[in-house]
Automatic annotation (TrEMBL):
GO MF annotations, alphabetized: ATP binding
Topology in the lipid bilayer: Multi-pass membrane protein
Alphabetical list of Gene3D superfamilies matching this protein: ABC transporter type 1, transmembrane domain, P-loop containing nucleotide triphosphate hydrolases
Xref: Pfam families: ABC_membrane, ABC_tran
InterPro entries the record matches: AAA+_ATPase (IPR003593), ABC1_TM_dom (IPR011527), ABC1_TM_sf (IPR036640), ABC_transporter-like_ATP-bd (IPR003439), ABC_transporter-like_CS (IPR017871), P-loop_NTPase (IPR027417), Type_1_exporter (IPR039421)
Organism: Flavobacterium proteolyticum
TM annotation in the entry: 23-44, 89-108, 180-209, 281-298
Superkingdom: Bacteria
Chief location category: membrane
Organism phylogeny: Bacteria, Pseudomonadati, Bacteroidota, Flavobacteriia, Flavobacteriales
Protein known as: ABC transporter ATP-binding protein
Length: 615
C-alpha cells in the first residue's frame, strides 16, 4: 500500500459511517445495475412470444434455489397474466419491473454519491484545518527558506486535488468492481462458454491501460510543484509592485511568469493526453470485445444447435448478454480513469504531508511553566548563535532590570535584531540561555512567554481590516474606549478621528491607505492595548521621515513609561534617554553605559553619533 494512502486513512476513519454507507449503497447499485439488464430477458420473451410457459405455481424448496424460484415465479405470473388478461398486460408487468430496477439503481447511486460527498468534504475541511494549524505553528525560521506562494498552493490546490482525485479509490475498489462482479455472474448464468471467451480479452486491455498511466504520478507532482512556484511569482510580484514598476522590471517578471506557465502548460498537456486516452482506449478495447462477441454469440444463436434443434443460446438471452457485456465497459472505463486520478491525488497528498510532517523545533516542553508576571529582570547569558555557518552573536551576555530601558545600537549585521528574535523565541538559542526572573524561556509555555511581551517591528505589519480589528489583536475583548485610549497614547487618535468611519475604517491591504508614520503608530497602539510588562522595539522608527519620527517618538516615550523596554535602534536620537545603551559590533558588546558616559569615552558610540549628526 502506498505510504500516502496509509496517511490519509486516519482522516477518513472519522467518517467511517459515510464510508460504510457508501460501500453498502455501491453494492446495491451494482446489483440493481445488473438486474436492470437481466430484466430485459422476460420483456424480450413476451415481445417475441417466446416466454417460457409455466402453469403451475412454483414452490421454494431451498434457499439455494431462490434464483431459479424467482425466475420460475416470474414466468408463471407472465403465463397467468397472458392467459387471463392478454399479452399487453404481461408486457406492462415486465416493463414495470425494468423501470423499478433502473429507479432503484439510480436511487442507490445517488445515496452512495451523497455519502462520498460528505466524506470528501469532511476530509478536505480536516486536512485544511490541520494544514493551517501546522503552517501557523511552524517557526519563523521555516519560512525564511520557503516560498509563501508554494505553501498557499499546497494548502488550497493540493488539498483540493486530494479531495477530488484520491477518494475515487472507493469507486475503484467497491462500486465499479462490484458492478463487474455481478455482471460477470449474470453473464456466466446466461452462457459459460461465451463468458470464458470474454475473459481472454479483459487482461489484454487492462495491461494496455496500466502501461499508459505508469508515469502519471511523477508528472502530476512536477505539475503541482510548478503550480506552487507560479503562485509564488504572482504573490511576490503583487507584494513588490511599486519596486517592479519603478525599475521598469515588468518585462523581467512577465518573462519569469511566462516561462513558468509554459512549463506548466507542457506538463498539464502531457498529463491530459494520458488522462484523455484512458476513456477512449478502454471503450475501444471494449467495443472490439463486443464486436467479437456479436460474431461468436451470433453463431450460437443462428447456427449452432442442440441435438433437438434448439439454438445453443436464445435470442432474448443473447441481447441481454450483449447489454451486460456493454455494462462492463462503463465501470472498466471508470476504473481506468479513477486509477489515473488516484495517481494524481497521491502526488498531491505527498506535497501535503511534506508540510504536515515537518518537525516543529520550537514547541512547549512537557510540564512547561505558565509565567503570568515579570518581577525582576531579563538575563541573557553567554549566547552563541548562528543562522547558517557564521556566528551572529559571540558569547553575548546582558541583564535588563525591571522598569529600565536598554537600547542596542550598532551597524547593520551586528546582531541587534537577532536579540529580539531570541527573546520572543522566534528562533531558539543554540548555546547559552535567555532567562526571565531566573527561569529559562525554553521552560515556559510559548503562549505565556509571548503574553509578557509586546513587539513593534520596523515593518508595520497590518491586515486588510478595520483599524479597530487590527488593534484588537493586542486584546480581543477590549472596549472601544480602551482602543481609543491606546490610540491616544500612540499619538494616533489625531488622524484616526478624522477618517470617514473612525476606528471602523478599513485600512486596505497591508495598511496601504495610510502613510508609513500612521501605520507605525497603529502598530504601537496595538502593543499599548496589549499592555505587556516587557516591550521590544525593533528599529521602530528607522523607516520613517523626520516629521513622522517625531510623532512616533512621542508615542514610544508614552508607551515606555514604567515599562521594561529593549530598544533596537538605528537612529541614535531616539534612544538618548535610555537607562543603558549597549553598543554592538559583529555580535559582541564593545561599549555600554548611558548616552553621556559613552560620549565621554569618545569611542565607537561617539563616532556613530558624529556620523549621524552630519546625515
Amino acid at each position: 500500500m502506498d505510504e500516502n494512502l496509509k496517511k490519509i486513512i486516519p482522516f477518513a476513519l472519522k467518517y467511517k459511517k459515510d464510508v460504510v454507507m457508501n460501500i453498502i449503497y455501491n453494492i446495491l447499485y451494482a446489483l440493481f445495475s445488473t438486474l436492470s439488464f437481466i430484466a430485459l430477458i422476460p420483456m424480450l420473451d413476451v415481445l417475441f412470444k417466446d416466454a417460457e410457459k409455466i402453469v403451475e405455481e412454483p414452490k421454494l424448496t431451498s434457499i439455494w434455489d431462490i434464483t431459479s424460484f424467482g425466475n420460475d415465479y416470474l414466468y408463471y405470473y407472465i403465463t397467468k397474466l397472458t392467459n387471463e388478461s392478454g399479452a399487453q398486460y404481461a408486457l406492462l408487468l415486465v416493463v414495470s419491473i425494468i423501470i423499478t430496477t433502473f429507479l432503484l439503481k439510480n436511487i442507490f447511486n445517488y445515496l452512495a454519491l451523497n455519502h462520498l460527498m460528505l466524506l470528501k468534504n469532511g476530509v478536505l475541511r480536516d486536512l485544511r484545518n490541520k494544514m493551517f494549524d501546522k503552517i501557523i505553528s511552524l517557526p519563523i525560521s521555516y519560512y525564511s527558506e520557503k516560498r509563501k506562494g508554494d505553501m498557499m498552493a499546497r494548502m488550497l490546490g493540493d488539498v483540493n486535488e486530494v479531495k477530488n482525485s484520491f477518494f475515487n479509490i472507493l469507486e475503484l475498489v467497491i462500486k465499479e468492481p462490484m458492478t463487474i462482479v455481478f455482471t460477470i455472474g449474470a453473464m456466466i448464468a446466461i452462457s459459460v462458454k461465451l463468458t470464458l471467451f470474454v475473459f481472454v480479452f479483459i487482461p489484454i486491455s487492462g495491461f494496455i491501460i496500466s502501461k499508459i498511466g505508469k508515469s502519471l504520478k511523477a508528472k502530476s507532482k512536477k505539475a503541482q510543484d510548478e503550480n506552487g512556484y507560479l503562485i509564488s511569482v504572482v504573490e511576490e510580484t503583487l507584494g513588490g509592485l511599486k519596486v517592479v514598476k519603478s525599475y521598469n522590471a515588468e518585462g523581467t517578471f512577465t518573462n519569469k511568469f511566462n516561462s513558468s506557465i509554459q512549463r506548466l502548460y507542457r506538463l498539464t498537456n502531457s498529463i491530459g493526453r494520458k488522462n484523455n486516452l484512458s476513456s477512449p482506449m478502454s471503450e475501444f478495447m471494449g467495443i472490439v470485445v463486443i464486436a467479437i462477441l456479436l460474431w461468436y454469440g451470433g453463431n450460437m444463436v443462428l447456427v449452432e444447435t442442440f441435438a433437438d434443434g434448439s439454438p445453443l443460446l436464445e435470442g432474448s438471452k443473447f441481447i441481454a448478454y450483449m447489454g451486460l457485456a456493454y455494462n462492463i465497459l462503463t465501470p472498466a472505463k471508470a476504473i481506468s480513469k479513477a486509477s489515473y486520478q488516484v495517481k494524481s491525488g497521491l502526488a498531491a497528498a505527498e506535497r501535503v504531508f511534506d508540510v504536515l510532517e515537518v518537525e516543529n523545533t520550537i514547541t512547549d516542553k512537557e510540564n512547561a511553566v505558565v509565567k503570568n508576571s515579570f518581577d525582576s529582570s531579563i538575563t541573557i547569558e553567554n549566547i552563541n548563535f548562528k543562522y547558517e555557518e557564521e556566528n551572529v552573536l559571540n558569547n553575548f551576555s546582558l541583564e535588563v532590570p525591571k522598569g529600565k530601558t536598554v537600547a542596542l545600537v550598532g551597524q547593520s549585521g551586528s546582531g541587534k535584531s537577532t536579540i529580539a528574535n531570541l527573546l520572543t523565541r522566534f528562533y531558539d538559542v543554540q548555546e547559552g540561555s535567555v532567562k526571565i526572573d531566573g527561569i529559562d524561556i525554553k521552560d515556559m509555555t510559548l503562549e505565556s512567554l509571548r503574553h509578557l511581551m509586546g513587539l513593534v517591528t520596523q515593518d508595520s505589519i497590518l491586515f486588510n481590516d478595520t483599524i479597530k480589528n487590527n488593534i484588537l489583536l493586542g486584546k480581543q475583548d477590549a472596549t472601544d474606549e480602551e482602543i481609543i485610549a491606546a490610540l491616544k497614547v500612540a499619538n494616533a487618535y489625531e488622524f484616526v478621528k478624522d477618517l470617514p468611519n473612525g476606528i471602523e475604517t478599513n485600512i486596505g491591504d497591508a495598511g496601504g491607505k495610510l502613510s508609513g508614520g500612521q501605520k507605525q503608530r497603529l502598530s504601537i497602539a496595538r502593543a499599548v492595548l496589549k499592555n505587556p510588562p516587557i516591550m521590544i522595539l525593533d528599529e521602530a522608527t528607522s523607516a520613517l521621515d523626520t516629521e513622522s519620527e517625531k510623532f512616533v517618538q512621542v508615542a514610544l516615550e508614552n508607551m515606555m513609561q514604567n515599562r521594561t523596554s529593549i530598544v533596537i535602534a538605528h537612529r541614535l536620537s531616539t534612544i538618548q534617554k535610555a537607562d543603558k545603551i549597549v553598543v554592538m559590533q559583529k555580535g559582541e558588546i564593545v561599549e555600554q553605559g548611558t548616552h553621556d558616559e559613552l560620549l565621554a569615552l569618545n569611542g565607537t558610540y561617539s563616532k556613530l553619533v558624529m556620523m549621524q549628526s552630519f546625515e
